[in-house]
Amino acid sequence: MKFKKHLEKKYDTKEKMSEFLKGYEEFKLGVMLKEERKKANMTQSQVAERMGTQKEAISRIENHSKNINIETLLKYAAALGLKVRIVFES
């Protein structure tokens, strides 16, 4: 069974699919942050030091990015020498 068909079967209502996609987007953000950190050849400890926080906080951001606030996202990006751009699409 293809993945798309699997999702359609498992999340058979609009509400279920919407909830799944919301969780996926939160997960995807954490994955993107971790990938950018690795591209910058930095450890979680190094990012934490630049942000003025603890390594555990960086781990939570990367693995449980639900409800990450904009200020934290901007600080994380700045620690990597990056900027954040937000785009709204319809």
Give me a quick take on this structure.
The protein contains 5 helices and no strands. It is mainly alpha-helical.
Write the layout of secondary structure elements.
Layout: H1 3-10, H2 14-39, H3 44-51, H4 55-63, H5 70-79
Helix pairs in contact: 3-4, 3-5
Q: In the CATH hierarchy, what is the architecture at level 2?
A: Orthogonal Bundle
Shape: elongated
CATH class: Mainly Alpha
Average the pLDDT over all residues and give the rounded result.
88
Helix content: 55-70%
**What structural category arises from helix and sheet content?**
mainly alpha
The CATH homologous superfamily is termed lambda repressor-like DNA-binding domains
Number of strands: 0
C-alpha termini separation = 30 Å
Radius of gyration using CA atoms only: 16 Å
User: Which sequence of SSEs, written as H and E, runs from N to C?
Assistant: HHHHH
Estimate the strand proportion.
Answer: under 5%
Number of helices: 5
Largest sheet: none
CATH topology: 434 Repressor (Amino-terminal Domain)
Our count of domains comes out at: 1
Point out poorly predicted stretches: none
Keywords:
single chain; 90 residues; mainly alpha; 5 helices; 68% helix
Protein described:
There is one protein chain. The protein has one domain (3-79): lambda repressor-like DNA-binding domains (434 Repressor (Amino-terminal Domain)). It has helices at 3-10, 14-39, 44-51, 55-63, 70-79. Helix content is 68%, strand content 0%. The longest helix is centred in the first third of the chain and has 26 residues, at 14-39. The two termini are 30 Å apart. The chain is built from five helices and no strands. By secondary structure, it is mostly helical.
